[in-house]
Amino acid sequence: MKTSNHIVIMAGGIGSRFWPISTSDCPKQFIDVLGCGKSLLQLTLERFGNMFPKENVWIVTSAAYADMVMEQLPDVPKENILLEPCRRNTAPCIAYAAWKIKKKDPNANMVVTPSDHFVQDVTEFRRVIESSLKFVSDSDAILTLGIKPTRPETGYGYIEAVLGTSSLANKEVYRVDSFKEKPDIDVAKAYIARNNFYWNSGIFIWNVQTIVNAFRVYQSPIANIFESILPVMYTEQEQSVIDEKFPDCRNISVDYAILERAEEVFVFPVDFGWSDLGTWMSLYDRSPRDLNGNSMIGCNVEFSDSHNCIVHAKENKRIVLIGINDCIVAEHDGNLLVCKMSEEGRIKEFTDK
Amino acid sequence: MKTSNHIVIMAGGIGSRFWPISTSDCPKQFIDVLGCGKSLLQLTLERFGNMFPKENVWIVTSAAYADMVMEQLPDVPKENILLEPCRRNTAPCIAYAAWKIKKKDPNANMVVTPSDHFVQDVTEFRRVIESSLKFVSDSDAILTLGIKPTRPETGYGYIEAVLGTSSLANKEVYRVDSFKEKPDIDVAKAYIARNNFYWNSGIFIWNVQTIVNAFRVYQSPIANIFESILPVMYTEQEQSVIDEKFPDCRNISVDYAILERAEEVFVFPVDFGWSDLGTWMSLYDRSPRDLNGNSMIGCNVEFSDSHNCIVHAKENKRIVLIGINDCIVAEHDGNLLVCKMSEEGRIKEFTDK
């Protein structure tokens, strides 16, 4: 029997570090952050090309965002949009999708991905995903993609691989030694000085049986909740039962809940030009710039004696910067931010205040 | 016979240094630049209190601005709004008003004022105007208000008074020795080191016979044009004849055309807290500021580690500045400016481009 492949896109985040472009009413994944005419959510699905039939695409999001998902991804069946009644981090989100898929397709493989990241080399990305799906369909491995680090970034978690332990089934895949929390700068420098530390991308690949079993072993309260919901899945009662029981799930990431505890965890080191677009600086790094280092997204800015600025303001008729250096200028829906690039860590203090 | 007093407000300027708040579609004088709920034009008329009956108030402006004037000054009779078909600087503008008033009221006194300046001490302003009107009604003097300078400003013209020559009729008024063009900084410092140099305010007071005669002597081509228009003034033909003949007027300021040439020119040194609001810096100087030197006009800005900024953005819901110093942030009608205060001289390069 040929196993079928499913993709689960997690689209419930609120993107608080990208105010005012991203707001809780319309977070980053629904926004054309890159100024290319498509939202990050749309780009996320496009990235997979024709690897998945549309009925195997699942979006997990908040009820408040259901209309935006349907509008932006009209080809995804409405019943494939899973609505969380509240935010409980990634473990309950993934469990919901896993039980749902398993009921329909008990031997399915799943790719789980955030909805708001950037990938430059889509061809390489697809090769990695296909190779990963093949790997997990032949094993009970939990596989995560690890980004080869390019700088001592303190904003990401790291994955330590056991080199020399590549799987027989896939020479590119290594056993994971441990997951590391966001390090300070000295620790980050030590990590990247070695060649077996990777950024945790939040992209996971596994067979649905593997992840469901892992939940049963390591997060039995969550597993029990979804076992109890299973009978009503694909019925008219599903949403009301989810609304009732989902809030009882523990608020925990899948990294903490499962990956750090499970045995058969592997990492696929990849290098396809990735960014979580978690900060304005990371967007600036990924954006085309003029000779003075200025980047404009979705707008036409006149720069005079200005350098190394990023301007994101799609609704403005005209923008002029004179004598401005190293600044973020962003406007959306009547909200205006002018921020020194080095101070962007403070932006989240002002989000949806 | 009691002479009557008239006020002529010149409201045809385009305020190019205040982009994007001021545009040629809606220049500075029609904008609530100070964030007080009233335009500079409205404040200009209010400044005179009840000194003039409304039928003695005259607005000279461009045809394009007629509707805005009527909307902002509904009490001024529509027929008192004089429409220039093109911009010809202040001399033709003043001549038009002078001939018009003279036909109706041959012995009138006139106060001529720009429409986009700021005056702090309105009580002192009114005292000066009343004293000035009394002075010119008893003489054939051309009187200009000279602002006592507070700094070596290079953006204004200066008036050199002959001290010890105060008029017998008004001890506060001095004969003018010469008008000086905008000086460089060293010359400006030399001017203010003496005590007989004043900023040229552009506010003039004279009897209508005096100014009409001065035009006849010193600017006979302009005088001839308005003599030829005189028969149709206050008739239905007036506007079409103005539209035909006004463009033939020389493009010249009243300072060059008359004041620098006439004999009986006096200056009234005044100190009522004046600014021409000609630059963002001058507006910043006149605006209330918080402890960090930040000024917000028409908006509520959240400042974080930001200092000495001026923000003028009435249409925004929310504005956040983080780590920004010495900047102008201004938004109007979809146009956004972020400009280092020291570079504001470049703003006019971007006006209505």
Can you characterise this structure?
2 copies of one chain form a homodimer. By secondary structure, chain A is of the alpha/beta class. Helices cover 27% and strands 25% of the residues of chain A. Chain A contains 10 helices and 17 strands. The first copy, chain A, has helices at residues 40-46, 66-72, 90-104, 122-137, 185-193, 208-218, 220-229, 238-245, 254-259, 280-286, and strands spanning 5-10, 57-62, 81-84, 109-114, 118-119, 142-147, 158-162, 174-180, 197-207, 265-270, 274-275, 295-297, 301-304, 310-312, 318-322, 327-332, 335-340. In chain A, α3 packs across α6, α3 (90-104) crosses α7 (220-229) and α6 packs across α7 (220-229). At the A-B interface, β15, β16 and β17 of A face β15, β16 and β17 of B. β17 (335-340) of chain A pairs parallel with β15 (318-322) of chain B, so a sheet runs across the interface.
- What is the string of helix and strand elements of chain A? EHEHEHEEHEEEHEHHHHEEHEEEEEE
Can you give the helix content of chain A as a percent range? 25-40%
Assembly context of the chains: homodimer
Report the average pLDDT across residues of chain A: 93
As laid out across the biggest beta sheet of chain A, the strand order is 6-9-7-8-10
Task: Tell me the overall shape of chain A.
Answer: globular
Q: Segments of chain A where pLDDT lies below 50 for 5+ residues?
A: none
Largest sheet composition of chain A: 5 strands, mixed, barrel
Largest interface: A-B, 35 and 35 residues
> How far from one another are the termini of chain A?
53 Å
Which structural class fits the helix and strand makeup of chain A?
alpha/beta
Task: Count all strands of chain A and give the number.
Answer: 17
Number of helices of chain A: 10
Measured by DSSP, the beta-strand proportion of chain A falls in 15-25%
Radius of gyration of chain A: 21 Å
